[in-house]
Amino acid sequence: MTQVFILLIVGMMLTGCATTGKNKALQLIYGKIESKQVVSDLPEKRGILVGGKRGIAHVSSGPAAKASANRNIEKLIEPTQPHYLYTVKKTDGKTLQLVTDKNYLEPSDCVLIEQAEFINLRLVDDERCREQKRNQMVATRHEISARQCALAKNQLAIAQTDRQIATDTAQLEALCQYSR
After folding, report:
1. What order do you get walking across the sheet with 95-100 strand by strand?
2. Beta-strand relationship, 95-100 and 49-50
3. Mind listing the pLDDT tens digit for each residue in 101-152?
4. I want to staple 149 with a disulfide (CB 3.0 to 4.6 A). Which of 46, 165, 166, 176 is the partner?
5. H helices present in 35-132, as ranges
């Protein structure tokens, strides 16, 4: 009971701290990866979400923010680095497609799609895709992780120096990968 209370307090604190510039509500969507495809360019098809490091530059708003985010991302990712197009079957039976630079996810993996200003695809326990009733403590922990990841992506988008970019990238990689 104490753990739930502490998680709720930390969650409320992060909710206030991790507000993005666009103030988009955070959506957490569980699903199983149905397919993985290597693509060389970001698809222009409407309805495909763009996540990962490339997604930071993709959704940054305003010319100055977009230019800063693009500069930062160009320092991190080789232009020829492939993207991965994932088709995810959500727990409600519908599918969606998402492009990211994450290459370690495979078909049948259970993932959490975190959607707000930025998009993140996070590997989670298979149980999350099977359970009918969500475990509230786990859901709260996933929400906290998602907000921390969004904050790390925002920090990377606005980083000014190489040192900030390196620090923010390490933090992003630590906060946005897995959640069990």
Report:
1. 49-50, 95-100, 83-90, 27-39, 110-115, 119-123
2. parallel
3. 888 999 999 999 999 888 899 999 898 888 766 677 788 888 999 999 988 8
4. 176
5. 52-59, 63-76, 127-130
Give the Cα separation of 159 and 154 in Å (integer): 9
Per the DSSP assignment, residues forming a β-bridge with 100 are 84
- Per domain, the residue ranges of the chain are 24-175
Scan for tokens 């959607």, then name that residue.
115
Alpha-carbon distance of 138 to 157, in angstroms, equals: 29
The phi, psi pair for 107, rounded to 5°, reads: -55, 140
Question: How far is the CA of 109 from the CAs of 35, 99, 130, in angstroms?
Answer: 10, 16, 12
The Cα–Cα gap between 165 and 14 comes to 22
Tokens 């495909």 -> residue: 48
Which two structure tokens, joined as six digits, stand for 48? Answer: 């495909």
Encoded amino acid at 107, one letter: P
- Spatial contact of 39 and 54, defined as CB atoms under 8 Å apart: no
CA 115 distance to own-chain centroid: 7
Closest CA to 118 of 83, 160, 146, 78: 146
Q: Bin 39: left if φ > 0, else alpha if -120 < ψ < 50, else beta.
A: beta
Q: Are 115 and 53 in contact (CB under 8 A)?
A: no
Collapsing DSSP to helix, strand or coil, 28 comes out as strand
